[in-house]
Amino acid sequence: MANIKDIAKLAGVSKSTVSRVVSNNGFVKEETRAKIMKVMENLNYRPNMFAKGMRTNRSFSIGILFPDLKNPFFTEWYSIVDTISRERGYLNYICVTDPKGESEEMRIDDLLARSIDGIIIFSYRKDDAFIEKLRKINKLTPILCCDSMFLDSGLSCICADGEKGTYNATQKLIESGNRNIAYIKGKDEFSVVDNRFEGYLKCLADSSLKINDAHIISANFTRGCGYKAAEELMEHSNPPDAIMAATDLMAMGVLDYLNKKNYHIPDDVAVFGYDNLVAAKNTSPPLSTIALPFNEIAEKSINTLIKLIEEDKTDIVVEMFDCELKMRNTTK
Amino acid sequence: MANIKDIAKLAGVSKSTVSRVVSNNGFVKEETRAKIMKVMENLNYRPNMFAKGMRTNRSFSIGILFPDLKNPFFTEWYSIVDTISRERGYLNYICVTDPKGESEEMRIDDLLARSIDGIIIFSYRKDDAFIEKLRKINKLTPILCCDSMFLDSGLSCICADGEKGTYNATQKLIESGNRNIAYIKGKDEFSVVDNRFEGYLKCLADSSLKINDAHIISANFTRGCGYKAAEELMEHSNPPDAIMAATDLMAMGVLDYLNKKNYHIPDDVAVFGYDNLVAAKNTSPPLSTIALPFNEIAEKSINTLIKLIEEDKTDIVVEMFDCELKMRNTTK
DNA sequence: TTGTACGCGTTATCAC
DNA sequence: GTGATAACGCGTACAA
Fold this sequence. Notes:
- 2 copies of one chain form a homodimer.
- Chain A has 332 residues and is α/β, with parallel strands linked by helices.
- The first copy, chain A, folds into 3 domains: 4-47, 434 Repressor (Amino-terminal Domain) (Orthogonal Bundle), CATH 1.10.260.40; 56-161 and 294-323, Rossmann fold, CATH 3.40.50.2300; 162-292, 3-Layer(aba) Sandwich (Rossmann fold), CATH 3.40.50.2300.
- Chain A contains 12 helices and 12 strands.
- Chain A has helices spanning 4-11, 15-23, 30-43, 49-56, 72-87, 103-113, 128-138, 162-175, 194-206, 223-234, 248-260, 294-310; strands at 61-66, 91-96, 118-121, 143-145, 156-160, 181-186, 216-219, 242-245, 270-272, 289-291, 318-321, 324-326.
- In chain A, the strands form 3 sheets. A 6-stranded parallel sheet of chain A has the order 2-1-3-4-5-11, with helices on both faces.
- In chain A, helix 5 crosses helix 12 (294-310) and helix 10 packs across helix 11.
- The longest helix of chain A is centred in the last third of the chain and has 17 residues, at 294-310.
- Chain A is elongated.
- Chain A starts with a helix and ends in a 6-residue tail after the last strand.
- The structure holds a DNA duplex (16 and 16 nucleotides).
């Protein structure tokens, strides 16, 4: 691949002049610039990132940690993020972390060893030692968290207000006459969406409805788990008249069960999901759910990280986005 | 951060000796080695990847190009690939390419500028100029293609035998008495799965069934497109008694339509998908489909690329995996 | 407005 | 076994 010296020779100038054109700083005569640009075009010149990085200590690489790529949320989110990073000259390392075990910290070390410019992290973990490590790293390499569980950790964080969203959804169910509202939450060790559950609890309390422990189930985020949770709920001596799930995927499992058992939705049982997956429009019946402002969150995440990288490395940015209720046919 | 010179000074040796210890090649007296190791430990020394890369032209990074992350196939595939690359000391850049436009070539240039060690590519494109460019790059930087469309392009390729898989599925439908088998293929400009279509054509020909042009629809890989295609097929004066789709996602759209119009599946119309998505088990009724050997393909892809990188850079490896029919309830 | 010269942290090639 | 030294491609004072 052509280097800056080749360009200089062909354009009949010195490499410093080429460098000035490439990095767009310093004065270059318009004519010279045009000529150099043309040669670069012809040779399809790209600056060597190693050499550049050695001088500037910047890699224009970002590390992104996902705990689980199978969740459609991440891919949706990443499609947007990748577009923006490319536009701004960055490329992303994608690391899939294992929620069990130490792989998160190891992946972070791998990334750091490659002198990445910043890190975006979706995580299951939140123990103090881990947070402390992140905070330390953040002093040199900006970290952006995308889980509400990091809200008060002294780290930058862009996420959706799952508590408020769930609160509003619960309220909607209550307004429609539901009084026995069950909730399928995530397993305790994966506390990513715990704040959603908080919204449910808070709304019941505010509405003076009693919280029935038998109506709260922990499941593992899969459709199958949603199915089983619904089974457990509906076979209970006092079955609920509405089921909320912390994710659409689990809500779809609930629908699978209810449909199979010929329950009438929403009259026998109402169902509320969370995420507004594309697939949620096509369930039978179409799923009422809580929509995150996907695009805004994705755009804000990457733009914020790049801002932190390029401007104020040690700033802490925290922003929460409101969710929106999508009332479809699983609610009255 | 400490560099090799600091270590050398503190250990009272030259940086060449430190380098020999770090990269573990060349002879160093055990005593000297121990002393150097200790100093490195104390200063928490990490080699600078920029300088190292500049010298060796190796980044231990791999670039992966996906045309569309929303297809669950990719995420499934990548989860496996990422695990293996980490084990072998690599990290992956993930680029989402835009099927329309030149973004593929630009992303490849971006990757090359970062001196990635190898490229894995899933692509929509296959024009001669593009292939030629890839072939040229492949002389220096190993490229592995994961689409059957690259089979005869002189590039390394690991993929599933979509032609044979579709041939077998078509045969199965014919054996069950279906005679009017429609096929929903991809748009012509996105020829990724054309070989699947070939299998359909070949089987019809081998079975002396007439190919009805009105029963062949090009659609755009979404669920909605599958729906519309089914609508077009079923409203035709001579509707089919079976519909095959090039992907499960489109087949699911077909089911959406047929269910809505209260067709009886599979008696009125049989349906066959392709991909064996996790979701295909949960459609109503559960979708008969063609399963790719996911894990094997994923493992083989990354291991092959790393082999090409580390051993025989210019070798060409081609391997095709057989598919397996999953007969569920959308077929007789 | 442009060119010269040097250094960034490594590894590789010598010579000792 | 070890050390000096030359690259690798780029950015940037400083000189012209």
